[in-house]
């Protein structure tokens, strides 16, 4: 069994979509717009991103992108820094090399190995 799809509610559909495409190589499905977009990954998981004014996620809610190496985690982090994002530095946490970043959609993204 594998996760098939996930829907997230966000204030900024385009910003969230662009962020996930740029840093995590997610690909757009269909015709995206500012009210909803669908993304997919290399494993066929589909993420729906829907506009919702004032969407709030509980503390600790996050999505994670597992990377093949600590070097890849560092590479993504450095790209974010070069792009002017204020991402916390990667560190050893719960047995993983990881960092978190609050994306334009308002939820946390974890990047880990």
Description of the molecule:
The protein is α/β, with parallel strands linked by helices. The chain has a single domain, classed as 2,3-Dihydroxybiphenyl 1,2-Dioxygenase, domain 1 (Roll). It is built from 2 helices and 8 strands. It has a 4-stranded mixed β-sheet, covered by helices on one side. A hairpin with a 5-residue loop joins β3 and β4.
Order of helices and strands: EHEEEEHEEE
> Using DSSP, what is the number of strands?
8
The fraction of residues in strands falls at: 35-45%
Envelope shape: globular
Q: Write the CATH fold name.
A: 2,3-Dihydroxybiphenyl 1,2-Dioxygenase, domain 1
Q: Which CATH architecture is right?
A: Roll
Q: What is the radius of gyration?
A: 14 Å
Indicate the CATH class.
Alpha Beta
User: How much helical structure, as a percent, in the residues?
Assistant: 10-25%
Number of individual domains = 1
Strand order within the widest beta sheet: 1-4-3-2
Strand count, sense and barrel status of the largest sheet are: 4 strands, mixed
Q: In brief, what are we looking at here?
A:
This protein is α/β, with parallel strands linked by helices and 113 residues long. It has helices at residues 13-24, 70-82, and strands at residues 5-10, 27-29, 36-40, 46-51, 62-66, 91-93, 96-102, 108-112.
Keywords summarizing the entry:
8 strands; 113 residues; four-stranded mixed sheet; alpha/beta; globular; single chain
